[in-house]
Amino acid sequence: MDVLIPTSKQGPTDDSLQATRDQLYPMQAWYCIGLFIFIIAVFQWIPFFHSKFARSRPTSNQSDPEQAVVPYRRVFPWCRIPVGLINAYRVIAFRWTLEIGKWYTLNMVEIFVTMAYISFLFVWAFINTTNLEGHILDPTYWCNRSGALAASQFPLITALGTKNNIVSCTVGIRKFSPLNYVHRMMSRVVFILLWFHASSQVVQNAPFQPYLEKSWLRCGITAIVALTILCVISLRPIRARAYELFFYVHFVMVLTFLVCAYFHTQYDGLTYWIYPCFVIWGSDRLIRALGLVVFNHSYFGFRSGSTMDATAELLSDDFVRLRFHRPSHFRWTPGQTAYLIMPSVSRLPFEAHPFTIASFNSNLFDVLEEQKPRVEKYTRIAEHALGGSAPFWKELVFFINVRKGFTARLKEAASKGDKVKVFIDGPYGPSHNLGSYDTSVLIAGGSGVSYTLPFLLDIIEGVRNGKSSCSRVVFVWSIRNADHIHWIDETLIRALQLVPPSLSISIHIHVTGSPATAESLSHCSIDDAKPVCEHLPSETVVLQDGKPIVKSKDSLFAIESVKLQSGRPNLPAMLRGEVEMATGRMSVSVCGSQGIARSVRRALQFPVFSPLSNDGPSVTLHIESFGYA
Predict the structure, then answer these.
(1) At what angle do helices 176-204 and 215-233 cross, to 10 degrees?
(2) Strand partners, 314
(3) Which residues have a Cβ under 8 Å from the Cβ of 70 and sit 6 or more positions away?
(4) How many Cβ atoms sit within 10 Å of the Cβ of residue 555?
(5) What is the pTM of this model?
(6) What crossing angle do the helices spanning 449-464 and 489-497 adopt, rounded to 10°?
């Protein structure tokens, strides 16, 4: 770690050793972090390309009766050992968790990265701190070094906090939540390191009052106070309950910290660690501003056309649905989010809030138009058949959970029936290619259906177009009120009408709150499309209040593959059953509360060795963070 230092005839001094190491060790730390990022990128991109170019093998011999009855001698599947090891890694790394109260759930990867980063940074700060007289941990050695090491981390911390950053592109992790976790974790570790730096300065230079006249020192004190406030306000309980307060304080404190840190580091000539932060932040804002102009050009008068005025619909006291026409050049994939800016609702003109896009960027009806451009009647029938579900296929739709602040003001606008001007920024985040999986399980709680519904529609369209080899989809939705079913019931009906025979779909809707009533479950008849499953008779289902509910043959629940149940879903039993039946590759995608995510993780801790059997599936778990947590 150390290097030979050119010295005078009298030999090295404590000051020369300390100054050289203060310059050298932050650079060495960056080399190690760069190597770590490279290794992560390699491990991320290999599975990505494998999933893109993988071709599914036949999952069963049941389609060929002759092969199905041929007995064979069971041998140990040596060729499936790598798949078993990968599954074991997934279970240990991402499904074994440390739960801290109801707010924090850390998987083993997050724990490992956190402990490794803490150990790494503090070893670099306190190693080789024995002075020439033999006194160990001499403050003159680690005092300024700890500050320099902390300053060297700010460019990476800033990059991890932006939406358009080179780290995400390099490591292939487009999902915001893991990068944001590392962003917060690094900030807090650096915060502790800076307090070591500040406290040692106070001890070494006591009495400290005469130094307060120096501007660089006052800037340093202001910077560390701003970072302290920022670390406190970013704690999850505070951030989740007062997100808008966190949003404003975060912006002000980060700006204060970086400006003061720049002037403070001028004293030691370390500003080259600070000004890149402004470049990174400015570049991200510039890219986002250009995206706003491109996707919202009608507001800026660059081209005539209808503006993207949104319709805000009050679905219930707790939920608002926002929908508007998508720009012709705006493309997204299932699971992605967009930042919405509503000047008439927000406190600040360009205050942006992230929401998952609940609609699907479908090409199905565009293909119909291209195939038969002259048969206008055919096209009109195809579009008309969408009925009330049309926004989920042809528009941008968002389900917004009403809380305080911004969402409460949006609810007020929706209750008045006002149109809302919307600027859209995005899309952001990853989109998992579920078309390469043989089985997909989609689990959502409440507004988490914004995440799973587009995947369901995408799989159906992919199988129809021959682009997906998926053979089974299980769609689980847990809601508190039965009235919430009407958010997407007609969309599910239309989607199930499009399902090809090769795809099996099972839909489970669980009402966990107030019992359903006949009025809430009855659905109006569909006049603009043919009735669904006319051969099915009317049936009844008994919910927790004991009242029988008649299921009309034109309703969602007249479809045999749709099940309505009262109470929370038994996710462990459900997932075990699907794993036992599945073969090939299996995906489980979850968007819900911490309780749902924890239950799924525990349920999927068991199939470590299932790929070692000839028919056992390789299970991949995708969890989307819920709310502001």
Answers:
(1) 140
(2) 320
(3) none
(4) 24
(5) 0.77
(6) 10
